[in-house]
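Two proteins were folded this term; both appear here.
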Amino acid sequence: MATRQSLFRAARAQHGQDLLGDLSNPRIDGIKALEKACYLRLGATARQNGETQTAMNAIAAVRELERGEARSDEASDEFSHVLWSQREHSLAIQLVEEMLGSAARSGEKNKGRQAVLLSRIVSSSSLCPTIVSSCPRLNNGPNHPAS
């Protein structure tokens, strides 16, 4: 994995030499996307193996790659899973709530994503009922964005 990441960084550096400022091109964007996918896979595997610090480091690397851009759904999802595995349940639920609000604001195209995020919050209620009971989105009744 380290070899792949090193190759991605070298390729980005090589192709970025001729660019002015913070300009980008499709090749560099593709390399960044592959590098982010590699880090996300590393983070998920590390989390599943109980190596939460390695998972957090992978998420930090993805966040660094996304600096100046909108945060990707994949990185936010993995970050919430890492928080949950570190027993930071309230922070994990808060992050999922933020993602749910963002998906609701983006409109009709994200109804499936809203449903998935809402189900994650609801499934958390059996594990952490006191945290979830204070979740405003679950207490909005018929005006809830997923309704």
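Next, the second protein.
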Amino acid sequence: MTAIDTGVQDLGRRHPEWKPWLAVVQEILREAANPIWEALVPARTEPQQSKVPLLAGARLALEVRPVRQLVEQLIGTACRSGTPKMATLEPVLKAELDVAALFRASLCQDGKHAKETATVLGADPEAFEAVAALVAVPFLLACNRRWASAKSVSWMEGYCPVCGAWPAFAEVRGIERSRYFRCGRCSGEWQAHCLFCPYCGMTDHNELASLVPEKGGATSVIEACKRCLGYVKTFTKLQGSPAARVILDDLASVDLDVAAFEQGYRRPQGSSEALRPADVCKALLAALEGSEGRRRKRKRDQTPDAIGLGVKRDLLERAVVADPNPEAFEEWLLNYLRTYATPELWGPASAMARAVFDEWRLAHSLEEFRIWLENGAPSDDTKDEKPRERPSS
């Protein structure tokens, strides 16, 4: 019996109601040892770029056959689990499924694609999305193994250096108490700052909190951010978990997730690069109309407000046109400031650049903020306002 089988059985004894899902997880972890996935990982010779995950921009020569076999194995295991929702996945086995598109969606954590596919096939959307999310895991684990020497030793970002996913949990290791993040997708690990929110970059200790559940003890805590309401489970241990156990360790600590959820904290969905800066800046431009509405209703001198909003509008419009890549957005903002044409407004421009960068990061970590942006940044201040023509330049 392998260590994976032992870990799955242990979880099954502690949580008998999980056994149907654990059977699917066990299947994916066994498949991860198949050497065919390492053969699909492209070779890397160039050093890792700053802030760019190794998987970003990689050209994959995907073989459909092993992906199709994996999908059939997972769906078959799920159907045999005996749960009503998983049983609805049986039509998927008979369908002409676009497995390449499904693999791409799994790789990019695109749950919307899986739900739409399930609806067309008559399967339960949530059940199919859960299974589809695992399809890329054997390949991602292989990427972590093959690219171990390519990872930058100075990587200290909040997202995985291999695949760009958010951390599943953190480990505080040994007597040195070094902090490491662990990826729940590829099982990668990277060193992290001690007082640091991976989602919004908060480092102010007054905005960070540690929650200690009654049953967790001092070795298992929840590190939470009051600004973005994200959290990271943190375990104190002598050494890091083996790569094959990261998914199981994440499942085994679900009581911490429940405790964090009850306190109003959330783990962001999707990957760290799901939103492009230009998309966020377009939504922030719409929100700026609400700010204009509030400014026009004030009775005091509005000149400082008008200057600040004008600076922010210029920055956002330029970002939309430039459409910088997510990993280069911070550098783009710095270059924007260096080339700013009005020296006396450099101070306000610098403050607005920092604010926009914070809002972009917040859009990744706070689901409510992202939804508000995706809905067009609605504001009561824009209601009953007649649209104004802007002078052409």
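The radius of gyration is 23 Å. Residues 2 and 30 are 9 Å apart (CA to CA). These notes refer to the second protein only.
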